[in-house]
Amino acid sequence: MTIKKLKWGIMGCAGIAKRAVIPGLQLSGLNIAAAIASRDLDNAKRTAEELNIAAAYGSYEDLLADDSIDVIYIPLPNHLHREWTIRAAEAGKHILCEKPLALNRKEAAEMAEACAKAGVLLSEAFMYRYHPRYAMIKDIIASGQIGEVRAIRSAFTFNNAGDKKNVRYRKDWGGGSIYDVGCYPINAARLLLGQEPKAVTVQALFSQEHDDVDMMASGLIEFDDSVSLSFDCGMWAAFRNPLEVLGSDGIIEVPSAFVTPTPGSGNFFVTSKGERKEIEVAHVNAYTEQADHLARAIAGNDAMRFDTADAIANMRVIDACLESARTRSRITI
Q1: Could you read off the pLDDT of 126-178 as tens digits, one per residue?
Q2: What confidence tier does 2 reach under pLDDT thresholds 50, 70, 90?
Q3: Rounded to the nearest 5°, which phi and psi values hold at 112?
Q4: Mind spelling out the 3-state secondary structure of the chain?
Q5: Nearest-CA neighbor of 183 among 121, 97, 245, 116?
Q6: Which one in 65, 81, 116, 314 has a CA-CA gap of 20 to 30 Å to 230?
Q7: pLDDT at position 4
Q8: What is the pTM of this model?
Q9: What domains can you pick out in the chain, each with its CATH number?
Q10: What is the Cα–Cα distance from 264 to 280, expressed in whole angstroms?
Q11: Do 249 and 271 touch, CB atoms closer than 8 A?
């Protein structure tokens, strides 16, 4: 069945939009990056010209008023996700909102309710999970090749601490490493185990130089059957993003678990019966895959793989992690 190309409006000129999401849309056969808005019209025009986007607006309201736009992508700072998701829903637009979906579970639930009431789809932008290797990894786990899952380990760190004006370092804007990158290991463990955690314990480095946000955090997230995720995340550490699933009889190792910029970067390794094999995965653009899935869901050709209930559940875990880090205690979910 032929699907009409969807026109996307980009709300803001964030780096992730310019560097990854817009190029991903431009590789898509189902979607078009049709308009971009900024509160600075000159910035919107410059970005539109640089990225070959047809329309530029000097306010988010003007973007929502464009009747030709089908989908709004929201890469705004975290504290603005709730407001602009609800306003986009009320304007009849489908929405792809950056992770984390909101500042807390309550906000996420309000966003989901507004979208359901408006009859529009809301998707949280965890692009990594649309890469085909995660379906492959889930199949390997289900097949018993590595035996029973005993533990998951993951990390996502980078060093941007010198950029003191970055939005990640505004506490009231939802800054901090748990919100920014810790959400990935949390989301991945929930995805691979197919269950929700029972308790969390997190220790964090809160930096007065960076508005008291968590610049580094390490945590233990407890699931059923005595399985746990041990993770760390940070914005003041060397770059890495691995994931490991430890089984009773083998191991799955994903050296670059969340970003796959180059051919080969999506490959992973499976050790089973003492033999370690590299699993080669065709190179795809995860941002394109994410947008194309949403387009098919909007057209009614595919069910949403990850609904708003999943996003709310992920925020519930993030809430607990932040509470644990602040109180230095184990939090039961």
Answers
A1: 999 999 999 999 999 999 999 999 999 999 999 999 999 999 999 999 999 99
A2: low
A3: -65, -40
A4: CCCCCEEEEEECCCHHHHHHHHHHHHCCCCEEEEEEECCCHHHHHHHHHHCCCCEEECCHHHHHCCCCCCEEEECCCHHHHHHHHHHHHHCCCEEEEECCCCCCHHHHHHHHHHHHHHCCCEEEECHHHHCCHHHHHHHHHHHCCCCCEEEEEEEEEEECCCCCCCHHHCHHHCCCHHHHHHHHHHHHHHHHHCCCCCEEEEEEEEEHHHCCEEEEEEEEEECHHHCEEEEEEECEEEEEECEEEEECCEEEEECECCCCCCCCCCCEEEEECCEEEEECCCCCCHHHHHHHHHHHHHCCCCCCCCCHHHHHHHHHHHHHHHHHHHHCCCEEC
A5: 97
A6: 81
A7: 82
A8: 0.96
A9: 6-127 (3.40.50.720), 129-289+314-332 (3.30.360.10)
A10: 7
A11: no
Supply 70's token pair: 């089908």
Counting every residue written for the chain, the total comes to 333
